[in-house]
User: Fold this.
Amino acid sequence: MKSFKCIDKNFTAPAQFVSQNSNKIVLNVKDFDCKYDFITKDFRKTLNADKFPQIHINFGKLKKNNNGTYLSAAEVTLMNKTKIYNVEISENGKILSGKQQVKFSDFGIVPPKKMGGMIVTKDEMDLSFSFQSN
Assistant:
């Protein structure tokens, strides 16, 4: 197994914000599926899904860049720790989308290892998202 993805199986793109006056997306850790049961179980255990069941992403105001994309200061809250990332967002019609690499270590998390280190999870995670603009 060279690589794997953990995807929120209940997530529908474009994302729906928590409320009409909010730029916040909430993801339930237990909704993630990594295709392989043992990896899904480790992913949820690593993120302490019982104690911290949700990931919160709160997008700040969008600022248009010179290249036609947007920039937003996005607050990512994972396991009760919040980090701010400057996220570049592309527009395709009414759909805004982007991807941001975050690190487990940004949140004080040690990536899981299996089988005596034969299966190693990288420190980096890619958060991909899309949502509809008004």
About this structure: The chain has a mean pLDDT of 83. The chain is about 5% helix and 45% strand. The radius of gyration is 16 Å.
